[in-house]
Amino acid sequence: MSAAVRPSRKRFWFDPRFSIGIGLVITAIVGVVAIVANADATTPVFAAREPLTVGDTISRSDLATVQVRLGSTAEHYLTTETLPTEGLVITRTISAGELIPMSAVGSHAGLTLTNIVVALHGALPASIGPGSVVDLWSARAGEQGKFGPPAVLVDGAEIVRVVASAGFMAGDGVSVEILVPKGDVAAVLEAMANGSAIAAVPVNTRVEQ
Alpha-carbon distance 53 to 94, whole Å? Predict the structure, then answer.
């Protein structure tokens, strides 16, 4: 009697492209979930409870916290993490209910300091940039294009930014925005109006004998 013929087993054939396809599908799903999650993410930021005017000092009790979707623009607004315990000073009028932009607040130093753009005579030293502390020197314009002896106009002024010269301020020099005591503003404006030569000297500059 002949032995029964056993059916042969089929081998499972694995195609690598199949696993790659599954991986792509999973990656797409994860990406969509991440996008949806980020779209729903909110950031706690401050809004004005009532109109705020220039010079007002604000603290947490003066503000309302609201949850808004700001995404990458959150850094431009005052949040619960960026408000210092000593509060801030308003530098421009803010309406009631308006979100408070970082550009509209300043430190208490703003009560005694102010920003002013100054046209300098000559090139700016390479060591000077935003955040540098400088002494402003000026020399009064004299006859035949000559200048008088220089003297310190403002000491300990902070450079805010370097401004591209344009219009009547263009020339061989450069302009800088500086933070100076409000009591020195009149002297700086007078020197500029009189055509004095103004230079910025780093406070750590040493004159070799």
Answer: 6
Q: Which residues pair with 177 in a beta bridge?
A: 117, 161
CA distances from 31 to 24, 25, 26, 34, 38 (A): 11, 10, 9, 5, 11
Residue predicted with more confidence, 10 or 177: 177
Topology of domain 43-108, per CATH? Type Iii Antifreeze Protein Isoform Hplc 12 (3.90.1210)
CATH 3.90.1210.10 positions along the chain are 43-108
Q: How many CB atoms lie within 10 A of CB 38?
A: 10
Tens of pLDDT, residue by residue over 131-167, are: 888 999 999 988 877 889 999 999 988 888 888 655 5
Tell me which DSSP letter residue 51 carries.
Answer: -
How does pLDDT run across 29-52, given as a tens digit for each residue?
Answer: 766 555 555 555 778 888 999 888
Q: Rounded to whole angstroms, what are the CA distances from 52 to 43, 64, 72, 85? A: 22, 13, 26, 19
* Max CA separation in the chain (angstroms): 134
Contact (Cβ atoms closer than 8 angstroms) between residue 51 and residue 93:
yes
Neighbours of 13 (CB within 10 A): 5
Residues 6 or more apart in contact with residue 79 via CB below 8 angstroms? 43, 44, 45, 46
3-class SS shares of the chain: helix, strand, coil, % to 5: 30, 30, 40
| Tens-digit pLDDT profile for residues 167-184 | 544 445 789 988 888 889
